[in-house]
Write a structure and sequence with these properties.
The protein is built from 7 helices and no strands. By secondary structure, the chain is mainly α. The protein starts with a helix and ends with a helix.
Length: 190
């Protein structure tokens, strides 16, 4: 069981690593449209993303899928830009629908597949010789999920506090945060 907790810790540290801000930006980008009252939706979105990267981590760990790491490193920020563009659309539209939420779930699952390819090289380096992929994969994904939920909770607390201060301007606060993430990620690409 200590191996399991080792990999949980590895997953948590991987997401909370300040050198990998793309994870942080992505998590913020997909929860920026929501608030605490939407916690079930957010939990579903985080889980859809985790399922996506769990699938590609497994396929990659079994050496059934492999994509050039440079391509993956380009695709990851592109997924963040697409998430931000989706946010701009719905922030300006002023309305969320069930269809939009369904599309967001599908997008996060697909984006999770891409991000999982980015995680795959990291976890492969961490595997011990002749170790089964199951326990490391499970522990790593649990750690990633916990870290993501921690970031989401922290962001929603911050957003809640800002909402109390600026009240009717919260939509524009979300817009500005989204714009900042968009610009930071655009800079990452170039």
């Amino acid at each position: 069981m200590t191996d399991f907790w080792f990999y949980v810790n590895l997953g948590i540290n991987h997401i909370l690593d300040l050198e990998g801000l793309d994870h942080f930006y992505f998590i913020i980008s997909f929860c920026i449209l929501f608030s605490f009252k939407d916690w079930k939706k957010i939990l579903g979105l985080v889980t859809a993303f985790t399922i996506g990267h769990c699938i590609t981590l497994f396929l990659s760990g079994m050496e059934l899928v492999s994509i050039d790491s440079e391509t993956v490193e380009l695709l990851i920020p592109i997924t963040i830009l697409l998430s931000c563009l989706n946010n701009f659309f719905f922030l300006l539209k002023n309305k969320q629908s069930k269809q939009q939420l369904s599309i967001t779930y599908i997008l996060l699952l697909v984006f999770g597949l891409i991000h999982g390819l980015g995680f795959s090289n990291y976890i492969k380096m961490m595997l011990f010789d002749d170790e089964s992929i199951v326990m490391p994969l499970l522990g790593f994904n649990v750690g990633i999920e916990l870290a993501q939920l921690l970031i989401v909770a922290g962001f929603l607390i911050l957003l809640s506090g800002l909402e109390k201060i600026v009240k009717s301007y919260i939509k524009w606060v979300r817009f500005v945060i989204n714009l900042i993430i968009f610009l930071l990620v655009l800079r990452m690409i170039f």
